[in-house]
Amino acid sequence: MARLSFSYISYAYFYLLFGAAFFHLCLSNQNLDNILCMEDERQALLEFKHGLIDEGDRLASWVGVESDCCRWVGIVCENITRHVHQIHLPGLGGHCLTGDFRTFKKYNEASKQRFRGNLSSSLLRLKQLRHLDISCNNFERIQIPSFIGSLRNLRYLNISNSKFGGMIPPQLGNLSELEVLCLGSFRETRNYELTRMSNMQWLSSLRMLKYVDMSNVRLSDIIDWLHVINTLPSLVELHFSGSQLPHIHPNVLSLNITSLSLLDISDNFFGSFMPPWIFSITSLVSLNLNRCGFHSLDLGSIDGFRNLTSLEFLSVYRNGFMNSSFVLKGLSSNLVSLDISYCGISSPFLDSLNNLTSLLSLDLSGNSFSSTIPKSLGNLCNLVDLDMSNMGSPNISFNDILDGFFECKAPSLESLFLTFLGISGHLPDQLGRLIHLRHLKLDFNQISGVIPDSIGRLSSLRTLSLPWNQISGPIPFSIGELSLLEVLDLKENDFIGFLPESIGRLSSLDMLDISNNELNGSIPDILSPLSRLLHLDLSNNLLTGPIPNSIGRLTSLERLYLKNNQFTKSFPKSIGKLSSLEVLDLSSNQLEGSLPDSIGQLSSLEVLALSSNQLEGSLLDSIGQLSSLEGLYLAFNRMNGSVPDSLGQLVKLKQLNLRYNFLTGPIPNAMQKLLSLEVLDLSNNRFTRSLPIGLSNLHNLKVLNVHNNLLNGSVTDYHFSNLTTLGEMRAENNKLTLHLSIDNWVPPFQLEVLRIGSWNLGPHFPSWLQSQRKLRDLDISSSGISDILPSWFWSTFPDIGYLNMSHNDIKGMLIGDLSTFVPSAAVDLSNNHFEGPLPGKYNEADLFFLDVSNNHLSGSLEKFLCPSIGKDRSLMVLDLANNNLSGFIPDCWLNWGSLLALNFENNGFSGEIPQSIGDLSYLQSFSIRNNKLSGKIPASLLNLKSIQVLELSENEFIGRIPLLIGRQQTNLKLLSLRSNKLEGEIPDELCHLTYIQILDLAHNNLSGTLPICFYNFSIMSEKENMSVFLQAPHSEYVMTKVREFEYKEYRINIKLQIVLLVTKGRAYNYSTTLFLVTSLDFSGNQLSGPIPKEVMSLVGLRYMNLSGNHLKGRIPEEIGKMTSLESLDISLNQLNGRIPWSISGLSSLSSLNVSFNKLTGEIPTSTQLQSLNESSFLGNALCGPPLVEQCNKKRSPPDAESTRDLSSDGQDWGLIISIVLGFIIGFWAVIAPLTASKVWRSVYFCFLCKAWFKIRVVCCNHRHG
């Protein structure tokens, strides 16, 4: 009993002490806040801070002698002892993925807050540290410090995604209290970032581990990883995604980790059957096997999924074993989320999913479904998220997919992704029944028709994405009912009409993209309430009018694309209010005026694109205020004046494009400050002086284009001393001279494109080119080189695709080997002094373009053309004009079928045109002018269906003009048979050449009359518009791809379009303006008859020459209709009559020759005619200016005189017609009654008898009297 009472007393005493202590603690609690952290620990944290690089100043509170470290950012202390227990310093706010941020800009801004530097071992003084989180920082591949393994009280360690590198220290195995270990990282595009392991045994010591994340840690050397994991009995979550696990251990049947609820071994490609041990983990709730490459199940595991009854989340993306109805039927009915995308599952197997009634999320994308979608999908009425994208189901309709869901009483769908599915037909009106829908993506389908008005019922919709379809009609007004909409993407459709004003109600909208449609009208002011809008793209529509000032109210806007519309008037000043704007693209519009000063207020702007407008004025100094600018594009405008020095303040600028303006003055030295510049394009302006020496500072420069300016002066090797990254330099068509300080200069760059034509590089061949072995585009034309081509030249440039050395004085034989050139290369060696034959080796190169014209080549073409027999060639343009080549043209053209243009003019070829040239079915231009070719024009030329230019003049061809030349060559625009020995009549078949613009048959022996069917010439009569000669795109542009380089367009000067025309009495060469010329020349023949008035219907004809024939009759009065006529020569004929007064109305006529005919009368009066030389009218009976002989009588007004001529002609014809009509009427007035009536005949003949009797009586009396 005493013992019992003592026990009660002891308990009472204990409770009394406990109560007193608790009461004292409560009384003193108000002073706890005054207790500071441990001084030693505070110093330890300061040392830790000192080792970090804190650019974001996140640890600004970690200062002060009296400061309590427990109040510092990221520090948590124990309440009573004030020991530091936790350090929370994750970067990016703990959100490591870019997708966690609203915009990429916000991610970049947050990235600046990440720590760098080193981790100080001072953390070891934090004896009670239990929680350390420094994830999502950037420690730049330093190794994880081994001292962390001495923080023995740690329960939580998260250093994931912080860009550590090297080996993970095994000392971490000393953290026996550790429950959470996060060492995972992101996979970088270049390689695995980061950390690796060679031994995992230390992990077995961490018996308390519940959570392990080693995603993307390289574990390729860890064979026993599964054995180690099996020693962690408390493990709940295991993340080994992308860790290069070497072996899946398919022979292991089971594991002992019965508490594991999450297993992620995704992105480890095993390429085996699925191991049975996975099915032994019956506690699994979540299983991620994405991209594991499990192709099948072991026979003993065929129903393994039936063991995983707790499984709720299953992802098996890109695993073949799921393509089985038996496997699908074995899935747990508790599944909430299922991803079986890209597993090769066919549509009949979908019926196996019937029992998954709890399913909320289903991803079927990338499987091979037929056009039939099982209606059993409709049984999944609880489904919230459905993804059926990329399933390649042609001609499937929207209803085929959703009919089953529409049978549900209340469809639960919130996310519906059906991109790249081949959906056709219209959007059904039933779509409005999916009232819970939040995200609808139907990208890249074939949906047509209009958006139904029922779309407005989807009041929960956040994302509406319908790009790359064929949806037409106006955007429905009901779309304004989607008040929660954040993304509206309608680009690449066929929408028409105006922007509906109801869009202004979408106050939650972040992104609006309706680009590449056919919207018209103006941008409505109603958009201004969209205060959250970040992205607005209305590019490539038909929008007109000014850009409204209300655009300045979209104050959150970061990207504004309005390019390729028809906006007019000036640049809106209100855009300067968009302080968050990063991209502004208004290019390809019709904006005019100058840039406003307010543009300098766009402090966040990174890209300013205003190219292809009508902007004028000078560049503003305020552009220098755009401190964030990386790209400035003002090409194809009318900007003038000089470039301001303030441009040098744009230190982040990477691309500057000012080409095709009217900028003047020198290139400013301030550009040397643009140290980030990669692309500088100042081409096609009026810049003067030389290149500034400061350009040598631009060490990041990759592209320098200053061609087509007025630059002059010297350029030295110092200009290029630091341009080590330069890959493209175009400076042709300037008057620059290269002066080198050393003879054996080796440039610091390796260029791919070098165009410095028109520079002064000579007289010696530039030896420094030998170092540029990456060149694929070289132009040193017109560069004053007068030297022999060095032997190293042809073997130095294995990637060359374009070579232009024309217009120099390069001498010697063509001995180079072009076979090293890339396929479809272009070579221009014209206008030099190369001599000797064209080498057969040139045939070995598969060239696109070869121009060796205007040299001194001689000999035959046999070796060049004929070795290619049996091998098709790609050559499209061959120009050998103006050389001394001779002999027959070889008859071996069968393998040159790609030729578009062939020019042999001004050589010494003889013989006949070979028959095989007729096999060049793509040939568009063929010129052999001024050779010694003879024989008849071969019928094989009639097979040239594509021919547009046929120039056979100045040879010795005989015979007639082939009749079929007008029936088959209907594309001909130029036909010249001038100065040959052709005879016979001009065939009417030539009138089928409806597109002919130049027809020259002069100086032959043609006879007969001029055809009257010239009105069929639709170009000359302006029934159709003119077009450029040789219209095939590859006739003016060479498209070549050289290894890894992108396609480039190389402009080729096709001199095959230079045509010799005799106009105004002189010979002229036409090239660039050839397509504007229209000409008829039949002079110097034996033509007779009148000039047909049908010729006068050629109102678009500019030059006509009919001189030196035997034409008779009058000049047609209709000649006044030929309003385009500039030159008319009808001299040396037998024309008579007056010159029509209507000719005085031809205001374009500058050359007229009517001499040596039989013309009479006064020369009509006009400024053009009276300014002509009198020789143009000699040899006639004409009078009046410009002749000295004056007309005898006062000249009547032109109209009266013309009328008199016409009336005189009319009276002559009238008299003849009157006589004929009078005779006919009088004759039949007498004869008709006599024929019809016997009485009339009797009376008539009685009358004649009486009359005859009286005449005889009178005559007798007269004779006898």
UniProtKB/TrEMBL annotation:
Keywords: Cell membrane, Glycoprotein, Leucine-rich repeat, Membrane, Receptor, Repeat, Signal, Transmembrane, Transmembrane helix. The keyword Transmembrane applies. This is Leucine-rich repeat-containing protein. The lineage of its organism: Eukaryota, Viridiplantae, Streptophyta, Embryophyta, Tracheophyta. Its main location: membrane. Pfam families: LRR_1, LRR_14, LRR_8, LRRNT_2. It is found in: Cell membrane. Belongs to the RLP family. Residues 118-315, 619-781 form the Disease resistance R13L4/SHOC-2-like LRR domain. PANTHER family: LRR RECEPTOR-LIKE KINASE (PTHR48063), LRR RECEPTOR-LIKE SERINE_THREONINE-PROTEIN KINASE FLS2 (PTHR48063:SF98). It is a single-pass type I membrane protein. GO terms for cellular component: plasma membrane. One of its GO terms (biological process) is defense response. The chain crosses the membrane at residues 1213-1234. Residues 39-77 form the Leucine-rich repeat-containing N-terminal plant-type domain.
